[in-house]
Amino acid sequence: MALPPLILASASPRRRDLLTSLGVPFEIVTASVEEEEDPATDPRVMVAHNAALKADWVAAHRPEALVLGADTTVFLDGTTLNKPRDPADARRMLRRLAGRTHTVFTGLALRQVSTGLKLDEEVATQVTFHPLDDATIEAYLAQVHTLDKAGGYAIQEHGELIVAGYAGSFTNIVGFPVETVKQLLTRGGLLA
After folding, report:
1. Which fold is adopted by the domain 6-187?
2. Cα(55)–Cα(69) distance, rounded to whole angstroms?
C-alpha cells in the first residue's frame, strides 16, 4: 500500500531543511490562518493552538495527506517573545534575554482527515544567553536576519555570540524538534 503524501504546513526554510534531513519526501503548503500571538497567552497553549490551526487548515484541503504543523515561541518572565516587529524590537528582545535563561516552546500537530488521525506534541528547551553589551547585540544583528525568528535570534546562525548553553533539543531552538517530529511520523505510520 502506498504511503500518504506528507505536507509541511509551514513556509519556514529552517523547518523545510530539518524535515529534509529525515529523508522523507514532502511538499509545502502554507496555511492561510491568523495565528494567536498574544504575549500574555500561556506559551504551551499558544504553540499547540497555532500548530493545530495550521495543520487542520491544510488537512481540510488535502484530507488524504499527513499534514504536519508547527509553531515556536520564546518565553521569559511570564511573557512570550514572538517574531520581532522591527530591528528595534529585536534589540529589545536580545537585551531582555541577555544573561538569562528562557524557554523555547514548540507545538507540533500531525493530522490526516481521511483516517481521523490527530497527534499533538509539545517540546520545551531551556536556553541561557551570555551577558550581552550593545556592541555584541549590534554585531549579532548585523550578521543575522532576526525578524522572522521567535525571540529575535537564531541559535544556528552565529549562536556562539549570544548563547552560553542549552538543555534539551537543539533543533527545537531552531523551531523544529527533529527527534519529536520523527516520533510523530512513526506514530502516524510514515516512518518505520
Report:
1. Maf protein (3.90.950)
2. 5
